User: Fold this.
Amino acid sequence: MARALINLPKTAKAGDVIEIKTLISHPMETGFRPGPDGRILPRNIITEFLCRFEGEEIFRAELFPASAANPYLTFTTVATRSGTFQFTWRGDGGFDQTETATLTVA
Assistant:
């Protein structure tokens, strides 16, 4: 399992624009680089990031081989009500990791 970091405020007022930052440590490999034996290393990248709030998709990103080894994504959304964010990263070789974080709206 990769190490994921999620940064978002714990609380917000209704109508506030909040910033969400995510970072996942993942051994990215483009599929173009030769290994020690000269053979091309197989591609191993995160291909998709998805954020849902209470089951509703609010942000999605498709990632490609030129992405950083540890993809960092930041985006904003409007705080409308208290609930749980679900963050999912998917990639080559069946990689699939989901993390959650909660927001309380006053």
Summary: The domain at 3-30+42-105 is CATH 2.60.40.10 (Immunoglobulin-like). Residues 81 and 105 are 5 Å apart (CA to CA).
